[in-house]
Protein 1
Amino acid sequence: MVLSLDPLWRALLNHIHEGGGWRGKAIEWDPKEPIQPDGYDQQIRNRAEGEALDMISRLKSLIVENTENLATETDSDDEGYMDNGDWREEE
């Protein structure tokens, strides 16, 4: 897979595949597609960036949700405090 990110290597791998010399794991691309001279790593980077942004968004939502829950728990009239997620009564 790593070698297939480079256009020159992908062309060679396509040639081997089309000639029947490919062995091992099936390739994850269409060997009949034209070779992209700029390579293929940008597509993977864009997909990874999208996945990272999605994860950041989900983490932010969880943080906000947990912060709101924590604020609700500590707004009561009881005397106490939170300690590592556990409510402790004032002594």
Protein 2
Amino acid sequence: MISFIVRMRFAPEDHDDIERILRELTRFSRHEPGCVSYIPHFVEGDANSVVIYEQYVDEAAVDAHRASPHFAQFAIGGLYQLMLDRSVENLTAIA
């Protein structure tokens, strides 16, 4: 199982666009065969920050996600164009 958290920050004026983009990206991502979990969040008390929790069955599923047309459209062509900064935390499951 591959799990990670993506953290991004956006300008306040982009909030509605970010929410729209994340809804579409999530809808498509959750239908990928190797996607176990894809959950975007706005951070309470900081509406300009987004946290996405992602879980995939294996590295091939992560690669397929990143190579998908919806990732190109909504992540690379949408979120990445508007984000001010981004970090990724790779997780190791305990149980």
